[in-house]
Specification:
Elements: E1 12-16, H1 19-22, H2 35-40, H3 58-72, E2 76-80, H4 83-86, H5 96-111, E3 115-119, H6 127-130, H7 140-155, E4 161-166, H8 168-177, H9 188-212, E5 217-223, E6 227-229, H10 234-257, H11 276-280, E7 286-290, E8 295-299, E9 307-309, H12 327-340, E10 346-350, H13 368-386, E11 391-397, E12 416-418, E13 425-427, H14 429-441
Parallel strand pairs: 1-2, 1-11, 2-3, 3-4, 4-5, 5-7, 6-8, 7-10, 10-11
Antiparallel strand pairs: 8-9, 12-13
């Protein structure tokens, strides 16, 4: 029996993207600047000084991209709305042409039998809000909830699956702690503020959407990985526990329990006000799990957290990002969540790999390494299902090669190859592999 044959008939098979990584058209139809526009245009921030100004030009080529979804047999698509495309100043005046674009996306998906899954925030904060302090300021939580109301006011009649945040943990660590992502801020106090205010914003948005719209399926997406010490040394064990508390616990615990992990709670005390616990602790209908690799953490006294990535076990293979390939870590994470949070409805909302893909002389892309990556991770998901995990779906990252943040266009995660000069789309072998897997279930 093939790995895919063990999935239930109603399993969700999807692909994921994000607005800044694929849309382009940064000056079109009244869109405001985002923090990634400013960051990518700052010399030295992105490899080759590349930007998302054009990206995949999905803003104009979305119909072609959706045809690929339909041809592949995908029944769901997770995309993000660009906050500055809808509210150019982050708050106040709404840009109707921005909402019109997402109207077209939703209708285009539904016309092709693909269920839209909408993510409200995938890191592209309006620069106007960053100029006021962004995620460092408490009042941004109310502004995010107001933005959520605007989007839902237009689209909630057709979009029933809503994701509040994509990987708030990555955004806080990289954007506000170590400065490798937009807006490029550094320091533990900045990271702590970004974490807490994103948790508050998420809670307020969940409250608002649940109160104002019926029949919605509400959740969020976190990058979740098992964290292991890179050696048997006691200091590495302590470092792994601390990193796990910040990476996983600082987002899971407030959502499901209303508090921060006890080992780090004191570090948030200056930020937490009366009522915050109840605001963060909101019911969700599902949790999205983004998984790429298990983490191996070592003591690093001079790093932001005193803990950072360390040596990995021998014998592992790596992606072109230098990430170890550990499909058993996906099984471990899913079963941990099963036991930790009452077997909540789970979706793998991102899983995929970067490899150095090339278009062959015959016009095809033979990404056999990615096919093997997907095969082994689907096998891990199947194993988790067999062991009682309430796993309902799988979204590959990503539909398209795209602007890969600080790596620019040098890294390819897509199951569809994009020529960034001509914007030609070419499905890879991994696209055909997933199409075949989904066809067997359909």
């Amino acid at each position: 029996m093939a790995e895919e044959d063990a999935f239930p008939d109603d399993f969700v098979w999807g692909a994921s993207t994000s607005s800044y990584q694929i849309e382009g058209a940064v000056d079109a139809d009244g869109r405001g600047q985002s923090i990634w526009d400013v960051f990518s245009h700052t010399p030295g921030r992105v490899k080759g000084d590349e930007t998302g100004d054009v990206a995949c030009d999905h803003y104009h080529l979305w119909a072609e991209d959706f045809e690929w979804l339909a041809r592949g047999g995908f029944n769901a698509y997770r995309f993000s709305t660009a906050w500055p495309r809808i509210l150019p100043a982050g708050a106040g005046a709404v840009e109707p042409r921005g909402l019109d674009f997402y109207d077209r996306l939703v209708d285009g998906l539904m016309a092709r039998g693909v269920t839209p899954w909408l993510c409200l925030y995938h890191w592209d904060l309006p620069q106007a809000l960053q100029d006021e302090g962004g995620w460092l300021k408490r009042d941004i939580a109310q502004k995010f909830a107001a933005y959520a109301r605007v989007v839902a006011g237009r689209l909630a009649d057709r979009v029933h699956h809503w994701v509040m945040f994509n990987e708030a943990n990555v955004h806080a660590l990289c954007g506000y702690g170590v400065g490798s992502h937009a807006p490029g801020l550094t320091g533990l106090p900045n990271m702590l503020a970004a974490i807490h205010h994103q948790n508050l914003a998420q809670g307020l948005a969940l409250q608002a959407l649940r109160a104002e719209h019926s029949g919605l399926r509400l959740g969020t997406v976190i990058s979740l990985q098992p964290v292991r010490p890179s050696s048997d040394a006691p200091e590495d064990h302590r470092a792994a526990q601390r990193f796990d508390a910040f990476w996983n616990g600082a987002f899971l615990d407030p959502l499901f329990n209303g508090f921060y992990p006890p080992t780090i709670a004191d570090e948030f005390s200056a930020l937490v006000a009366a009522g915050d616990a109840a605001t963060m602790h909101q019911p969700v209908d599902f949790l999205g799990v983004n998984y790429y690799s298990r983490m191996h953490i070592a003591a690093a006294p001079h790093s932001l957290l005193g803990a950072w990535w360390g040596a990995v076990p021998r014998g592992l293979r790596f992606t072109a990002m230098g990430w170890p390939i550990t499909p058993d870590g996906l099984y471990e994470e899913l079963t941990t969540l099963r036991d930790r949070n009452g077997n909540l409805e789970l979706y793998i909302t991102e899983n995929g790999a970067c490899f150095d893909d090339r278009v062959a002389a015959d016009g095809t892309v033979h990404d056999d390494d990615r096919v093997e990556f997907l095969r082994t991770h689907l096998a891990a998901a199947r194993r988790a299902l067999a062991d009682g995990v309430n796993l309902r779906g799988y979204f590959v990252w990503s539909l398209l090669d795209n602007f890969e943040w600080t790596e620019g266009y040098s890294r390819r995660f897509g199951i569809i190859h994009v020529d960034f000069q001509t914007l030609k789309r070419t499905p890879k072998a991994s696209f055909a592999y997933l199409a075949e897997a989904m066809a067997r279930r359909g």
